[in-house]
């Protein structure tokens, strides 16, 4: 199945582009492909649609958030950044906008990037009364720590991650210590494995995670209701020496596509396509879960998305362009 999908995507593009039917006005386009799964999916989807639908010659440039945005602001390259978690480069991005070097091209993650505290869906369905942190504390015995059965176990982030510091402060602000141990899973793999192990045994689990990720695609989770986000409180929570931890939530994270102003001015039709890209966390997590199960590369996951979610991507395109892309997939 995986091989069929990548052949259908890759060979279809080659045949279509060499058939003499594609546009030639678009020219060369560069896309910054970030070094994580969801960004690789989006970059490869953009590449395929720009090539088959708009006749562009697309090059993917391997990069990461900060160097990509810095290069776009200072050098006007690459043309497109496929997925920018704006909170991590806010100052650079805003400077680029002010200087007329970059523009926002819309939210590629329709519901934004999400960081939060979660319980598995099967736990939420069995114990529907657990909705808030207070409910969690009152039912700590369900989440028994195997090394200290007198308390529950909360799975936090590994040491060295910023979210470890934030979770420590939230843990204190919510008074979690009276009922839970704040457990360090040791690594990203350890955190993911704890969820997979609990799911396999249908055991209770509570802790931190983020979306979109393969884990969220494989194991449906329900977000605990945390208090409202407060910018000043969250800024303190991000400090190890925060003197007044705030019992709030993680901030919403806008996840944008961005283009250089040069590209926006010279490629208005292609820009309209980029601006319309919007994928939900649930869909992208499902694609990433498929990719992990099949050991797929970014272009293979893009092929899976294009073949399975035609209704989503075709809505981003004019009818004539969508028809060209559909033909290329045959």
Automatic annotation (TrEMBL):
<dbReference type="GO" id="GO:0022857">
    <property type="term" value="F:transmembrane transporter activity"/>
</dbReference>
<dbReference type="GO" id="GO:0043190">
    <property type="term" value="C:ATP-binding cassette (ABC) transporter complex"/>
</dbReference>
<protein>
    <recommendedName>
        <fullName>ABC-type glycine betaine transport system substrate-binding domain-containing protein</fullName>
    </recommendedName>
</protein>
<feature type="signal peptide">
    <location>
        <begin position="1"/>
        <end position="24"/>
    </location>
</feature>
<dbReference type="InterPro" id="IPR007210">
    <property type="entry name" value="ABC_Gly_betaine_transp_sub-bd"/>
</dbReference>
<feature type="domain" description="ABC-type glycine betaine transport system substrate-binding">
    <location>
        <begin position="28"/>
        <end position="306"/>
    </location>
</feature>
<keyword id="KW-0732">Signal</keyword>
<dbReference type="Pfam" id="PF04069">
    <property type="entry name" value="OpuAC"/>
</dbReference>
């Amino acid at each position: 199945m995986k091989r069929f999908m990548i052949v259908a995507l890759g060979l279809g593009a080659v045949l279509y582009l060499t058939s003499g039917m594609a546009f030639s006005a678009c020219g060369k386009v560069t896309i910054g492909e970030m070094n994580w799964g969801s960004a690789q999916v989006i970059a490869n989807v953009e590449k395929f649609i720009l090539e088959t639908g708009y006749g562009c010659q697309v090059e993917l440039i391997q990069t990461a958030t900060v160097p990509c945005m810095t290069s776009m602001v200072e050098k006007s390259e690459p043309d497109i950044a496929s997925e920018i978690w704006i909170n991590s480069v806010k100052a650079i991005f805003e400077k680029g906008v002010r200087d007329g070097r970059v523009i926002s091209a819309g939210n590629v993650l329709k519901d934004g990037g999400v960081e939060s505290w979660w319980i598995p869906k099967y736990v939420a369905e069995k114990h529907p009364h657990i909705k808030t942190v207070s409910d969690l504390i009152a039912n700590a015995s369900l989440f028994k720590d195997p090394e200290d059965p007198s308390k529950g176990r909360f799975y936090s982030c590994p040491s060295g991650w910023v979210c470890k510091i934030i979770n420590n402060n939230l843990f204190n602000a919510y008074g979690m210590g009276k009922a839970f141990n704040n457990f360090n899973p040791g690594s990203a793999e350890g955190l993911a494995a704890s969820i997979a192990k609990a799911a396999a045994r249908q055991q209770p689990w509570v802790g931190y995670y983020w979306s979109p990720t393969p884990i969220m695609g494989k194991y449906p989770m329900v977000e605990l209701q945390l208090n409202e986000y407060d910018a000043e409180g969250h800024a303190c929570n991000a400090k190890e020496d925060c003197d007044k931890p705030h019992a709030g939530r993680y901030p919403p994270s806008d996840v944008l596509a961005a283009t250089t102003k040069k590209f926006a001015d010279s490629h208005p039709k292609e820009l309209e396509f980029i601006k319309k890209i919007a994928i939900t966390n649930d869909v992208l997590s499902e694609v990433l879960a498929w990719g992990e199960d099949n050991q797929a590369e970014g272009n293979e996951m893009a092929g899976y998305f294009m073949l399975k979610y035609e209704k989503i991507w075709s809505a981003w395109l004019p009818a004539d362009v969508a028809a060209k892309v559909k033909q290329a997939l045959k």
